[in-house]
UniProtKB/TrEMBL annotation:
Region named Disordered: 1-20
Keywords: Cytoplasm, Membrane, Transmembrane, Transmembrane helix
Gene3D superfamilies: CofD-like domains
InterPro entries hit by this protein: CofD, CofD-like_dom_sf, Gluconeogen_factor
Main location: cytoplasm
Location(s), subcellular: Cytoplasm
Function: Required for morphogenesis under gluconeogenic growth conditions.
Family: Belongs to the gluconeogenesis factor family.
Ranges of biased composition (kind: Low complexity): 1-19
Entry-linked PANTHER family: GLUCONEOGENESIS FACTOR-RELATED, UNCHARACTERIZED PROTEIN YVCK-RELATED
Protein name listed in UniProt: Putative gluconeogenesis factor
Transmembrane regions: 40-62, 82-106
Amino acid sequence: MRELRLPGAAPLRSAAPPRAAERPGSLRRWLAPGIGVKRWLTLFILCTALGAVGFLHFTWTGPLHPLATRWILTLNSLMDPGVLPLHAIGITVTALALLGALWSVVMLNRQLLSSTGTAPARAMDLLYEQRTLTRGPKVVALGGGTGLSRLLTGLRDSTQNTTAIVAISDDGGSSGRLRRSLDMIAPGDLTDCYAALSDSPVMARLMLHRFERGDGIQGHTFGNLMLATLSEEEGGLGEAMQDIHEVLRIRGRVYPATARPATLCARLSDGRTIQGESQFKTLVGYAHIEQVSLDPPDLPALDAALDAIRDADVIVLGPGSLYTSIIPALLVPAITEALCAASAPIVYVASLMTEPGETTGLTLEDHVDAITRHLGRTPEHVLVNSTVPSPDVMDRYHAEGAEFLTLNGASRALRGRVHTLPLIHPDLARHDPAALVQAILGLIPRRLLPVDVG
């Protein structure tokens, strides 16, 4: 069990989930490592100073010597040498001239950008994405539900090389209705992930808008309906991926685990088999889940998703429900093979609580064993939250039959893979995206991280 800290970083702190409007100030972004601005700013200042010295040499040794002498005498007469030394007057004038030159360059850039219809703030965002985020680590995240979308919210401000591979077996709510009506994959978790990675705050908000009225559309989200429309237009969501990424301006990529509809099935400890993800919550007080599978089992994966796994710097499982979000994304045969062959470390973000029915009575080690049993590879790292939620939150979860997951009873082998960190908001009992991303990036070997240059 190790205390993890990003090299050179302060200890992790809980912070509010980052929102689109809560981005670094424009000045900090201009000076951020890797943008390529500081080098040119430094060159501008050096050239300006060298030019000033050259001009001084020319005026003092050339035909403008009388004019330079008159300028110095006039400037000295305007300012009291008793207040400022004579050389300080020259430094002050030089500094003011340099600031004026910098201001003129800034205003020139602003004018040029405005003439092309690009807002300066947007131009800075584009530059930041192209020069910094595009060089960020390659992170592949698998799962579904709100846990995965919260992780993606944190990743979008750290790297543009994020690939989400999303479970598509949900058969309840809006997703279930669309699946049954159109014979398509479940769009709900995809919608959440697209909204989390969208670079358009307006589209992100619209994607999550749920209709509260209207015959036929009540209960559906705009994003689910949009994905259903694209699926109909293109003959499946697999063919519509590029259009979706362009329309929503996705900072990264989001792919379904498979582009074909599938039903999640579970074999129980009493020998029974249940079909349909919505049935998993009915297991409270009955037999527990031993194995889950997809029907049909021979589902194809998207080539782009497999390529992302092969090229990844780190692979993240979760956070999310063990049997209905994380493991279903691992059950497509080609994805299973790619994950087992991947050279990148696999990080499992452990659940905060057990889930009534689905994981009642399971320990942390049981969660890891279930992933190993279905995937054929044990995660190299397990991130476990160390912050205890507030008593009110704990009481609420206990009333629902959920238990807080801890290292109690964990084997020595598991403890060697565990990193305990403060990863949640104590009053919410949900993963803090910023703390979670910092922890994950801290597990990437330093040789794979990009070198920051000015």
